[in-house]
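Bench log. Compound arrived from synthesis this morning; before running ITC I wanted a structural hypothesis for how pyridoxal-5'-phosphate sits in the protein. Inputs:
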Amino acid sequence: MQEHDLSYILNQLGEEDRERHRGAVAPPIYQSSIFAFATVEKMRAAFGDELDNTLYTRGNNPTVEILRRKLAALEGAEDALLFGSGAAAIAAGVVAGLRAGDHVVCVQKPYSWTRTLLRDFLARFGVSHSFVDAREVAGIEAALTAQTRLIVLESPNTMTYEQQDLAAVATLARARGIRTLVDNSYATPLNQRPLALGIDLVAHSATKYLNGHSDVVAGVLCGSKALIREVFSGPYMTLGAMLSPHDAWLMIRGLRTLPLRMRQVAASTAQVVEFLQNHAKVEQVWYPHAADDPQAALTRRQISGASGLLSFTLRCETTAAVERFCDALQRFLMTVSWGGYESLLFPVAAVYPPDTRVGAHKPGQVPVNLLRLSIGLEEPDVLLADLAQALDRV
Ligand SMILES: *Cc1c(COP(=O)(O)O)cnc(C)c1O
C-alpha cells in the first residue's frame, strides 16, 4: 500500500487518468448498473474478482471506486467498501465474521442502531452480546468469554463521548484472536487512525463529517484487503446496501474540503465550549477536548484534533424549560444527525413525553435535559449570540 499526502488523496487519488474522460477535472458519474464485455474471457475474469473489476454496480462501480480508494487511503487501510448508510457499514462489519453461538462485547450506550443490531436483531440468530463500560480496558476483559469473536467500539461514543483505549483493546483482542471494529465517525480519519493502533475494521457514518453537506446518507468500512474481501463476498453482496454512483460523486465533492471544514469547526467549537462552561444556566458540558474531561489524557494520546460535537445539560427542573431554550434558538437547526456545514441541536427531551421531570432517566441513560450541539461553519459570534439569547429564556 502506497502512502499519499492528504492533498493528493483528496484531489488526485483515483482520478489520475483524466485523459480517459477528455480531461474532465471533476470525475464523471458512471450512472450504469451494468458493464459489458467484448469477449467471454474478459467476462470470466471479471466474475473471478468482482471486487476489483466492474461488472455490476451492486459490487463495484467506477465512480464509487474513486471514493473507495480515497477513504481507504485516508484511514491508512488496504481497502474500503462504501455503503448506503453508516448503519449498513457497521452491520456488515459486525455480521461478516459471526455465526450462531458467538458472543460480541460492545461499548455501553453505542449509537442506537448499533445497539438494536446486537440486542434485537443478532440475538434472533443465536449471537449473544454484553454491553460494557469500556473506559478502562479491564471492563472489556472481564466480559470476554470463550465464545467472544468480536469487540465493537465507538470512541468517542454517542452523546457523552466516553472513549476506549484503542491500542490497549487491540492488544488484548489480538492475543485472543478476537476481531475488533470501531465506529470512528466522531473523530474522522484526519484526527484518529484506529488501524494504526491495531484495530481490524473501521466504520464511519459518512453521512456526517466525511460528506459534510447534509445531502447524502452513506457509510464506509475500512480494513485489510483480506477482511474487506470477506465482507464483500458476504454481507456486502448478499444484503446489497451499496452506495449509488451519484451519491458517491457528491461525497467525492464533499470530501475535498474535509480538512478545511474540520479546522473551522474545531476553532468555533472551542469558543462555544468556553462560553457554555462559564454560563450560569449550564450545569455540565461534555466535550472530550476540554481540559477537565475525565479522559483528557487519552484524548491527547489518541485524537490529534477536535470535532464539532458537544453536549450539555441545563440547570432546570422540567423539560418545559429545556423546550423554551430549544424553541428560542434561531440559527441552530433542531434535528437528528450531525457533521454538516450548518449548526444543529438535538434535544434528548424530544424522545421523552412532555413534562418529563429532569432526572427521570434511569442510571446509565443519557439525561433528559441533555442537549447535543453539532457546530457548523457559521461565524462563531453568530452562534454565541444565538445561544445567549436562548439561554435567557431558561
Ligand atoms: C449517525 C451515526 C451512525 C449511523 O449512520 P447512518 O449514516 O445514519 O446510517 C453510526 N454511528 C454514529 C456514531 C452515528 O452518529
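What the model suggests: The CA atoms of residues 342 and 376 lie 4 Å apart. The mean pLDDT is 96.
ITC booked for Thursday regardless.
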